[in-house]
What does this fold into?
Amino acid sequence: MSHGSWPYPGSRWWRFDFHTHTPASKHIDAWQNAVGTPNEITPEKWLRKFMAAEIDCVAVTDHNSGAWIDPLKKAYARMKEQAAAGQAPEGFRELTIFPGVEISANGGVHVLAIFDPQAQSSDIDRLLGAVGYQGTLGDSDGETSKSVIEVIEAVLNAGAIPIPAHADAAKGLLRVSPAGTRQCALSANTVRQALEVEGLLAVEWCDLGNPYPEAVEKLAKPLARVLGSDCHSFQGANVPGSRFTWVKMAQPTLEGLRLALLDGNGVSIRRSDEGPFDPFQTPDHLIRAIEIDNGRVIGQGQPARLALSPYFNAIVGGRGTGKSTLVHALRLATQREAEVQALPKDSEPRERFEAFRLFSQGRASQGAQRQNTTVRVEWQHETDRLRLIWRLDGSRTVEEWREGDWQSSASQSVNPARFPLRIFSQGQIAAMAGRGRQALLTIIDEAAGVAPLREAFDEAKRAFFAQRARLREVEGKLAGLPEVERRLQEAERKLKSLAQGDQAAVQQAYALAQRQKRAVDETFTQLYAAVALLRESAEKLLLDDWLPQHFTEREAELLAWRSDADALLARTRAQLEKEARMLERGIDQLKQDDRLARWRRRADAAIEAHRRLQEQWAAQGVADPQAFARLTQERQQLEAQAKALRLLQAERDALQAQIEQQLALIEQRRLAITAQRERFLQDKLAQNDYVRIHVVPYGFDAAVIERSLRELLDVTDERFADDILKAEAGQPQSGLAADIACADAKEKPAVLARVRSALLERPGRLGGHFRNFLERKAGKPEFADHVLTWFPEDDLRIEYQRDGKWHAISEGSQGQRSAALLAFLLAFGEEPIVLDQPEDDLDNHLIYDLIVRQIRENKLRRQLIVVTHNPNVVVNGDAELVHVMDFGRGQCYVKCSGALQEKALREEVCQVMEGGHEAFARRWKRLGREV
It folds into this structure.
């Protein structure tokens, strides 16, 4: 990645080659012999080689010469001008040239001197004069008149950075002899004095397997060990890009390099031979910028905008400079209000947030919003850029960056899956360690992937409710079965009476014909339904279309396979359609069948005979000649009703069995939620020395269970306290909630079942008023359904470690509780995390041991945004980007932004943060330089 292609502010990693040569180093035969030929190495060719190797910074360190510094810089300036004009030379990428030289000190030790990128060849010449080099420029055999100690001091006096070259190899300051020992090849006193020169920050070290000389190991170990290609030609092993050092800086400057070397290996220096390393890998989700427009005390005139690094962003400033305002605004825009609203209403973080979100009625009001307040959050998910826009009316708009502009997104959904984010406002962590455990449980559920299990649990309850509703409907219908059976018996008695006499045969034949006719008609109805079913099945035999952007012409073989699959289903559809047509023809043939025709003639004859009988009765003055027909029809209807109701009896029995099974499934799925939570906690806290958390199924806090039970009963006041929860001095004494809270884990399911039974059966041990209330509730059939599926929420038993022993979180100080919860919250997750003053209430040793260490670990996998008053968090946490907030003229604003390697930024940090100077001093105290 080139200089210009990294789109984020703050510190980043740069490929730095600390040791290179040009044709100015005279002993390089390949380059010298090519002079005047087509293969001659020109400054442009030399630069292109390092550009092709994707080197960002190159130190030009010829032997005792700076002759090629100016030609290289001029050549690079020309190439850059061409690129700016839109005619970039082939292979051009930005490159920072650090002028330098490899000095052969008296005694044969080589020392690299690296100058500021603004330096010229003349600066190298002056340094060579200062160290007393009288040999041939570009020759590696000549030596200075000054000792290696004096050479290092002279380099520092020239404003450059001294680095002993290939210190563990030939002509190196720290080489050992004989091989395989740890004895200094040079005088141990000389080496010791060289290492003690104030300002020596690094050595070039060729092989990490080589040992330090034993006599100077303590002095040598703190020095950064850098790596360069030591390229003497573009052939063989030591070519551009073969060996280099990753250096973390805001910009490639000498000051940035000096501070990176002060940080040393593992912080701001990483060698290319230390294994795979992708410094440009960013988290899948990150916030690119936060912008507030027209807030009450921020963003008036012009929006307050904070661009962010993908890694560790620190926001600092004095009291009342808008730091927490940014956190609250981010919470609103990303729809994360529920996390703080899950805290008790009287908790300080919730009260502060609720006050912030109000519309400001004037100076005396609490609200931070104006009529046209707007919050914009720019979000990146992998390669997609999104922007969230929040306005005072609560509306949110989602936009996408397309074709160089923000355009409305097809999906306006704002949810944790699309915009995963953790926000912990000031005091929120401490609150969650106390009465806000349910808010912590919500966070655990999101991180542990409990949502699918919760949906399965809710779906099981919905199915149960549907089954219970159907059972009530079925039982309501079955209540009419005795009456239907009585009426059927009565109709049959009357028909039997009417059937006595000569006309009985006619009447019976008529009744039989009617029943047969109904059966035949139903058979044809079923046959035609089968035709429709075959055609409907054929229509559904289709494969989903493949998205064309996922399968190009290069996948011709796979697309051909897909065509075969489509053809297979097409043949099956055709076969089903053919079967449907054959069935239709068969039905037509059945209609014309002689057997059916003969039956129809018999049935029609019976019906005609009955009609004539009715006419005879009418002629003879019979009072109700239609009685037999009417009773026959009534009997048929009653028989159909009775048959349907008897089928319902079977359905009722099946429903009752299904309901029992569904209740067991509901309990199983509820236990699965508990188990998933516990697995997640055990996995994430297995090696945590600060906190351990266990899930308590159905809870242990009687007050929390009481709230859940009152919500179930829709009794949110203090009624029925003796029956629900009676407490003294905050301790549960009796009541249904107390029964559950005080039961041990094994007994709790049985106790919960007894509580449900008490709510439904209303035993005498309950108070009379409460029983009367429950009896009225029982009048609503759904009440029993909800009681049977009620489970109090799980709770969390949190413990922290002190003096090697585990203690309940309630026994800890505010700082200990916050530290324990913070250790847990930083132990998992890859989504961006926002911490507002996490150091509150923590001891200084906890701030460093917990916060600083966890921040360094977290920023390798997630973006961090930390609001803090503590300079140790910023400085020793190694923030890639720092924003300094201030207040003036009635407005909060961003005073400055930058990296810690920028002196102006460090001065601002020291000015607004008490202890800033000390924090910087501690960070770099190992080498004792002013920062």
